[in-house]
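mind reviewing this fold:
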Amino acid sequence: MKNIERLLNSIGKETFVKYFDAFRKQYDTQELIKVFRKGLENWSEDSCKTKANAGRKLFYSNLEKEALVLIIESNPNKIGGGIETINIAKRLISEL
């Protein structure tokens, strides 16, 4: 569980939910960075790589469901997007 939390903190819970489908498609790091740029994210190249690699690792390790559970159980006041992020995570987990 600690590893999942660390990876989620590297990505950001809101970012994980926002780009869940791109992570699920198993894009490589460079493809994910292109998706982030299309999403108008203003992150540095290193930050994009960190987020991309952490998201890829969650899926590669089959931990995406557990990550969504942690997001759903989060305090909405302590995550970007708040309750909206949690509601999207609930929808995503119901589709798995």
In short: The helical segments are 2-11, 13-18, 20-24, 29-38, 45-60, 64-72, 82-94. The CA atoms of residues 72 and 90 lie 7 Å apart.
